[in-house]
Amino acid sequence: xxxxxxxxxxxxxxxxxxxxxxxxxxxxxxxxxxxxxxxxxxxxxxxxxxxxxxxxxxxxxxxxxxxxxxxxxxxxxxxxxxxxxxxxxxxxxxxxxxxxxxxxxxxxxxxxxxxxxxxxxxxxxxxxxxxxxxxxxxxxxxxxxxxxxxxxxxxxxxxxxxxxxxxxxxxxxxxxxxxxxxxxxxxxxxxxxxxxxxxxxxxxxxxxxxxxxxxxxxxxxxxxxxxxxxxxxxxxxxxxxxxxxxxxxxxxxxxxxxxxxxxxxxxxxxxxxxxxxxxxxxxxxxxxxxxxxxxxxxxxxxxxxxxxxxxxxxxxxxxxxxxxxxxxxxxxxxxxxxxxxxxxxxxxxxxxxxxxxxxxxxxxxxxxxxxxxxxxxxxxxxxxxxxxxxxxxxxxxxxxxxxxxxxxxxxxxxxxxxxxxxxxxxxxxxxxxxxxxxxxxxxxxxxxxxxxxxxxxxxxxxxxxxxxxxxxxxxxxxxxxxxxxxxxxxxxxxxxxxxxxxxxxxxxxxxxxxxxxxxxxxxxxxxxxxxxxxxxxxxxxxxxxxxxxxxxxxxxxxxxxxxxxxxxxxxxxxxxxxxxxxxxxxxxxxxxxxxxxxxxxxxxxxxxxxxxxxxxxxxx
Length: 620
Fold this sequence. Notes:
- By secondary structure, the protein is an alpha+beta fold.
- It is 32% helix and 14% strand.
């Protein structure tokens, strides 16, 4: 028997119901516990649905939250020593777990305190985050956090606070109990925080991670009724859906999209009483419903839930600005339902997340599943224009006439024009999921870069406005001298807010933009941004710089202090100037460089003086 887990065979042993042992549940962390009357866990699905189980098991949804067993860690933490400037941390491996000790940074090694076990993990794709026991029996299942995350692609540890776009000097993004009170709401299946008192929680979930029943609803009736083989064969032969289980592929667009939107949205509780009910017993929303239970999806331009809306926006005056562009388009990742719901395609009633994304691929070989899960679980050909041709078949035969770009070019990609990278999260830019069309007017009103200038980074807003007028009869808005003469991207990189700067820095590392804009002029701007006040922007500039010739192996610690940033910037600039720069004299006024490649200092300084210094916390 697996330690700490009880296994029960139902009738013939065909179905397995799993839950953590009720005799000795671990006292120092949240536990998996059944939620009556309908949940039976994903183990019950495996014997009848092995292919679907295999794809779910390979997905990052399954490993969104895991018990912190050594084999589940993305890196070996044994002996890792880190400090945040005031506190030193050392990680030690026990027989079946990792433990963290801490001490004041200047104290001797003998001052390391008692060990706290790392008990839960979040993430296994881009970042892995480590949650610890509090080490105090009075805190029950309340979690603390190891203040460093592991960056999987970069193979390095980084302060948690520097994995988010937050103001310089921000102390922390999580504190004791935040997992129990916040993360549990979406990073497990049917989580219940179960607040007790003080800072004590007795948290439970049906399953850690996002399981089968998160999308298909509780399976108990489905399991019990399908013990009868005659029923199964009858349903199979008739082709009729099984009413005992939810299947998003058989739902209309709004219901299917909300299956994802129950987590992938910006939502709020109806009121304080709803929050208490949710914390105690979870919500009653089940896949197939058209509305969330106890909660509502927040669209800042909506008029629903007026009292809750008023209270929410008064409580946090930055709530909208930290999550949305001024026109209501979502600007942070993980909230794709908000964009999908606001898209014109959604209004027809058929469009949903699974119009493009695939939950269970047919090919469940290891290689195929690895490719599927790392390409955002897209359905076959859905990363191409075929996704849009499902409804817009007429564009297939007249693509170039519509896009005014060569059919095989990135400028003829529906995604690049109608779902550009204007969303931020996980230290990168991500495609917007609100389908829209490029507009200079919207660009000016919201500050959100338009699709044309995210690809043609060297061009002005006047150039874009002229093309949109020529091709689509869009009126040309009034433009000031800078918008007529200077690159829109350069303006945002120098005077934009931290979120805008990150989008432009990331775009400079995007292959289609490099091809459309030329990349020789990117170097001095990306090197300059290595000294941005925001760690997330420095990271974006570094990763983009690594995509440029001569800097593929360039190492830069985006976490270092200002003095070391400036030193690294100077060395990087000198290297570019002496070894990589081509003194071709081709740099023009729009990109604010002299023909030699040095900044046009008067314009550069003027734009920099206009930089938006408003504090930003993009709440992804």
